[in-house]
Design brief:
By secondary structure, the chain is mostly beta strands. It contains no helices and twelve strands. Strand 10 and strand 11 form a beta hairpin.
Length: 191
């Protein structure tokens, strides 16, 4: 809970499972970002999307990830020449897929002693084009030692103002083109 006089700005919340001992890895459950600000009516609307083919359920870290931010004036026309700032947050995680709810997926790129922490990437700010779009390329080559949840955050600014509107998109990223998953009807925690 935020205090009544908490500073305005962006806040990130990451939720992990509780560790049983100091050698056990935290398992990432979910994350979100929210913004605390003084109320002022928005003049822009913004949406973010991750571009490309993720037929396998995630994007590969060996390829740059392309994200598109679409900024429109409140009544639908393209917002041209607006500044867009963006960040990407990579959070180590185990994969989970809705279609394979009862499966556990093994990440063989990590051992129990490897400690990978969440990381933030600040991307170079862009100006929207004639269609109100800003494209960001995220180089993921450095993240080849695990599976991650990537949260892309974009903030579009009104022209000649510090007032902004935000949007988010997220996906999984990993260095491998396949994962091994298993499902069991028995408790195998003793293995």
């Amino acid at each position: 809970q935020l205090q009544e006089h908490s500073p305005i700005g962006l806040y990130d919340i990451d939720i992990y499972t509780k560790r049983e001992n100091e050698y056990q890895r935290f398992d990432f459950l979910n994350s979100t970002t929210f913004k605390v600000e003084e109320y002022e009516e928005d003049k822009l609307k913004v949406s973010s999307s991750i571009q490309g083919d993720k037929n396998i359920g995630w994007f590969l870290t060996k390829e740059p990830l392309k994200t598109e931010v679409l900024v429109q004036n409140l009544y639908g026309s393209a917002a041209q020449g607006n500044e867009v700032k963006a960040t990407a947050r990579l959070i180590p995680t185990k994969f989970w897929f809705k279609d394979y709810d009862n499966y556990k997926f093994f990440d063989n790129s990590l051992d129990e002693e490897t400690k990978i922490l969440p990381e933030n990437i600040t991307l170079t700010s862009q100006k929207t084009d004639a269609e109100g779009k800003a494209i960001f390329d995220i180089d993921l080559n450095k993240y080849s030692k695990g599976t991650y949840r990537l949260r892309f955050s974009a903030e579009a600014f009104e022209q000649e103002s510090s007032k902004s509107v935000s949007s988010y998109a997220s996906t999984y990223v990993a260095p491998m083109s396949y994962l091994i998953g298993y499902k069991t009807d028995s408790n195998l925690s003793f293995l």
